[in-house]
């Protein structure tokens, strides 16, 4: 899958780059399950593992299946990285790399790596992971290169993937307006000015209204540095300063009740405005 998507992506770049404006979205299945990689890449990862001082074990040795799974996963990451490199090489050969915005991003978090002394699950330094509205399930890679973006810079302005449509519309110079009610805002100012830039959206903050029937249903809003979470069944509210407490260990709801109340009211009003739905509707449909 990686090889085929890469081949077709490179062909698309060669066909269109320098001849017309183009948009290419490459959505790899990797590194999702089932974990797959070429035998050559797996063997390269195995050799690196041995070169690092680990024993050269074979299929009949104890622990081989686990190590093979690790080599296969590493190989899949390597081949995904090589895919991006091949596309960048094609852009460079077409002499449009410095004129092209390249955005590398991912989906909603990974697995849960460990538990702390209280039993909370963490994905690296972030609490919980995929399917969660804690930061471990919301924060994702977002790397951009292109015209006006200074190499090696970091921007701390929070963005979301639904900002991409208005961003690309803005960067394209289109004279046709976007339809009303589009979520997100253009990141152009953030691309060009970094932390001095801002994003103007129709929503009052970043809203994640997660009406899920198979995982804790939580409605979330982030405004500035603060993030409010309300469980849609129990009504329990949590409040965090995710700028300073990105592991979300210090619940501020009891210490800052007025802040929690204000943010919860803003969240409820917005969800009602966009008809975000509630759990009774979800359970009825399920």
Tell me the fraction of residues in β-strands, as a range.
5-15%
Largest β sheet strand count, sense and barrel closure: 4 strands, antiparallel
Task: Report the structural category.
Answer: alpha+beta
Kindly report the average pLDDT value.
Answer: 94
Radius of gyration: 22 Å
Topology, number of strands: 9
With strands numbered from the N-terminus, the spatial order across the biggest sheet is 6-7-8-9
Q: How many angstroms separate the termini?
A: 33 Å
Low-pLDDT residue intervals, each spanning 5 or more residues = none
Helix content: 25-40%
The ordered string of helix (H) and strand (E) elements is: HHHEEEEHEHHEEEEHH
Shape: globular
- The number of helical runs is 8
Q: Mind explaining what this structure looks like?
A:
It is globular, with a radius of gyration of 22 Å. It has 8 helices and 9 strands. Helix content is 35%, strand content 13%. It has helices spanning 2-16, 39-51, 64-93, 135-138, 164-172, 188-193, 257-273, 279-285; strands at residues 102-105, 114-115, 121-123, 126-127, 142-145, 206-210, 218-223, 226-231, 237-241. The strands form 3 sheets. The protein has a 4-stranded antiparallel sheet with strand order 6-7-8-9, covered by helices on one side. Strands 2-3-4 form a 3-stranded antiparallel sheet. A two-stranded antiparallel sheet has the order 1-5. It is an alpha+beta fold. The model has no long low-confidence stretch (mean pLDDT 94).
